[in-house]
Amino acid sequence: MPRAGLSTDRLVSAAADLADEAGFDRVTLSALARRFGVKDASLYAHVRGLDDLRTRVALLAAGELIDRIAEAVDGRTGKDALAAFACAYRAYALTHPGRYAATQIRLDPSRIAGSPAVRRTAEVTYGLLRDYGLQEPDLTDAVRLLRSAFHGFCALEATGSFAAPRDLEASWNQAIEALHITLTNWPRAS
Hints:
Elements: H1 8-22, H2 29-36, H3 50-73, H4 78-95, H5 97-102, H6 109-112, H7 116-130, H8 138-158, H9 168-184
Helix pairs in contact: 1-3, 3-4, 3-7, 4-8, 4-9, 8-9
Organism: Streptomyces composti
Keywords: DNA-binding, Transcription, Transcription regulation
Pfam family, one: TetR_N
């Protein structure tokens, strides 16, 4: 019988909070059980194990991230949409480092099939890139470029790795401008 007050949603939310506080790699069933003052075994009434819990945190975070991005890009096109997308991505990554780390793990395709967060991410991202006139296979290549650029910048910023005296916001804005120029002049696949 599930322990009173515990639910899958409460556990996943608490695990996401723990990820932001301590790091996604420190999210364990034991740490989560301690938060609720229960034994580890009590959690198995709500999640199938650590992989299940981490997958659920990843999907929660992906949903939160795309909700923020979709709100930011709503009604915008071209460079304005790209900048809004990029800035919402960056803000989430820096504000929620553990949740953001969860969005970077490889998930079992069978677990994410039909996920509203995954579907919405594709819709919003591909919509942004279709405004640049891109079609497959260029869409996939452009998604990979944007994800690499945004993730790389955020990861380096989060660890304080940008030591040059150049203003970080200026570099960020220049990166967005460079991406806009690249997308506008995309070399079409033959």
